[in-house]
């Protein structure tokens, strides 16, 4: 057993927190194949392993168009209450199998009404599936809690209606709001009325920002989106300047030590100083070109720099099927890349649970459970 696989086996048993995971990017390959066959939808592969490998290869190709191919297939089979309920139930079971004890699942109901479901019916179907999954995990002796984040698609310009939808279901499973889709050209300021309404009604929002666009997008998410968290937020690192110098205090005859001076721009400083949580998805960030300005490998990801500088970072999967990842795998990857200890990996779980949209008492109880297990 390799060092990485051994660590992954250990991590899988430890309680973890997932705040950024899309329902339509996380189906089981076998389920997708079965549901597609029922409706006559053609898939590029008809064997689960081959289909998963196809999606992962597309994600690794460097082509955003190929990365997004999977969603045309997944959303096609998620157009009935029965299918939405099944996908949501299996979603919970798969997270629990990976050791996740708390998750916030995001999805866009407006993408699931092509066969006559109303927005409310779609939300109710997903909630029924989530509750079934939680009950099944509990019956097996496990523990997991899951809340819905309702996403509005930026390009659809329907945020006001989706915000109202989220508010209607806030007491029956919905715990927050999100906007997704293309960042460039669709800033949160275009949807400021929706974010104002949510703020007036005290429903928190996380905003996709700093993934497909830069610092301006992050600033807009904070100002007009009233974001309590940033979906990805990775490109906030573009507002950080590192300058290498030398240590003049070096003793005579000894090599001078290189020092790095760090200068945070106003957006980065705001995010760091106010501990705005960054929902980072390392592998997805590499696949979608989010970290292109930093490099082409996971080792080039600014995650570690952000962590070392005191930013509030968490680890997520984004789309488990599409990217071919798990939360356990992402944590093991970061540990291997940046030589993180278990204590540091535990930090990311506490960061996430404290930034979650749970109530204070629930966050405290889960934090205690996580810390006890990781120690």
Automatic annotation (TrEMBL):
Question: Keywords for this entry?
Answer: Hydrolase, Metal-binding, Zinc
Instruction: Tell me the protein's name.
Output: adenosine deaminase
Read off the SUPFAM superfamilies from this record: Metallo-dependent hydrolases
Species of the source: Nesterenkonia sedimenti
Q: Which GO terms describe its molecular function?
A: adenosine deaminase activity; metal ion binding
User: Top-down, what is the taxonomic lineage of the species of origin?
Assistant: Bacteria, Bacillati, Actinomycetota, Actinomycetes, Micrococcales
Cofactor section:
Zn(2+)
Which InterPro entries does this UniProt record tie to the protein?
A_deaminase_dom, Ado/ade_deaminase, Metal_Hydrolase
Q: Which GO terms describe its biological process?
A: adenosine catabolic process; hypoxanthine salvage; inosine biosynthetic process
Q: Which residues form the Adenosine deaminase domain?
A: 15-371
The kind of enzyme this is, by top-level EC class, is hydrolase
Family per record: Belongs to the metallo-dependent hydrolases superfamily. Adenosine and AMP deaminases family.
UniProt keyword DNA-binding, yes or no: no
């Amino acid at each position: 057993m390799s060092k990485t696989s051994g660590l992954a086996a250990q991590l899988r048993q430890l309680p973890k927190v997932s705040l950024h995971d899309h329902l339509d990017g996380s189906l089981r390959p076998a389920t997708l194949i079965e549901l597609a066959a029922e409706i006559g939808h053609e898939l590029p592969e008809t064997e689960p392993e081959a289909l998963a490998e196809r999606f992962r290869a597309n994600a690794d190709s460097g082509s955003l168009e190929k990365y997004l191919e999977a969603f045309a297939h997944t959303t096609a089979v998620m157009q009935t209450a029965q299918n939405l309920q099944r996908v949501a139930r299996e979603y919970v079971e798969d997270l629990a199998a990976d050791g996740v004890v708390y998750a916030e699942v995001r999805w866009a109901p407006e993408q699931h009404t092509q066969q006559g479901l109303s927005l409310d019916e779609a939300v109710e179907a997903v909630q029924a599936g989530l509750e079934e999954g939680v009950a099944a995990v509990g019956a097996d002796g496990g523990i997991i809690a899951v809340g819905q984040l309702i996403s509005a698609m930026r390009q659809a310009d329907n945020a006001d209606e989706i915000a109202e939808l989220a508010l209607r279901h806030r007491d029956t499973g919905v715990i927050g709001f999100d906007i997704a889709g293309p960042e460039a050209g669709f800033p949160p300021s275009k949807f400021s009325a929706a974010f104002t309404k949510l703020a007036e009604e005290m429903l928190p929002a996380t905003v996709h920002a700093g993934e497909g666009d830069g610092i301006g997008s992050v600033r807009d998410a904070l100002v007009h989106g009233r974001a309590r968290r940033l979906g990805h937020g990775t490109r906030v690192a573009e507002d950080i300047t590192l300058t290498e110098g030398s240590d003049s205090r070096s003793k005579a005859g000894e090599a001078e030590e290189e020092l790095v001076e760090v200068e945070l721009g106003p957006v980065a400083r705001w995010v760091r100083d106010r501990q705005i949580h960054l929902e980072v998805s390392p592998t997805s960030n590499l696949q979608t070109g989010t970290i292109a300005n930093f490099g082409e490998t996971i080792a080039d990801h600014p995650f570690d720099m952000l962590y070392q500088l005191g930013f509030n970072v968490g680890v997520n999967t984004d789309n488990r099927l599409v990217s071919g990842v798990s939360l356990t795998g992402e944590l093991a990857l970061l540990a291997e890349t940046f030589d993180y200890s278990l204590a540091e990996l535990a930090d990311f779980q506490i960061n996430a649970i404290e930034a979650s949209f749970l109530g204070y008492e629930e966050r405290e109880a889960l934090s205690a459970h996580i810390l006890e297990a990781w120690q």
